[in-house]
Amino acid sequence: MDVEGWEHEVLQGAVSTLRHPDLLAVIIELNQSGNRYGFSDEDIHQTLINHAFSSCQYKPFERQLIDLGGKYNTGGNTLYVRNSEFIGERLLSAPPFRVRDFYI
Q1: What residue numbers bound the domain in which 35 lies?
Q2: Cβ atoms 6, 12 nearer than 8 A
Q3: What's this model's pTM, rounded to 2 decimal places?
Q4: Burial code of 27-64, b = ≥16 C-beta within 10 A, e = fewer?
Q5: Does any domain span residue 2?
Q6: 3-state class of 62 per DSSP?
Q7: Distance between CA 39 and CA 8 in Å, rounded?
Q8: pLDDT tens digits, 46-78
Q9: H-type helices in 6-101, by residue range?
């Protein structure tokens, strides 16, 4: 999600979606752009944590999720996941694919 500083408001309007157990991941840009509208990245982060998401980094070539230990990327995208075991298994079992000259 990249809505140029309005991420907090989008999440506030998406409470039923965030609660839905089928939603397993959200990727969101956190770069302090919400500050000009009175929204902090920490509030956005806490909203996702409160909905049982964990902040992670994804390493595509290794197909690994790395837990960020409750922190988030302050200058770009942060991946929030729910049910990381299931997602990790899916990442490892998915068929490989090619992106340009790289096989993932």
Answers
A1: 7-103
A2: no
A3: 0.89
A4: ebbbbebbeeeebebeebbebbeebebbbbebeeeeee
A5: no
A6: coil
A7: 6
A8: 999 999 999 999 998 899 999 999 999 988 899
A9: 7-12, 15-19, 41-50, 84-93
Return all residues near 41 (Cβ < 8 A) that are at least 6 apart.
30, 31, 32, 34, 72, 74
How many structural domains comprise the chain?
1
The side-by-side arrangement of strands in the sheet containing 54-59 is: 25-30, 76-81, 54-59, 64-67
Cα-flanking dihedrals φ and ψ of residue 83, to 5°? 65, 60
* Tokens 């000009």 sit on residue: 36
Cα separation, 99 vs 83, in Å, equals 27
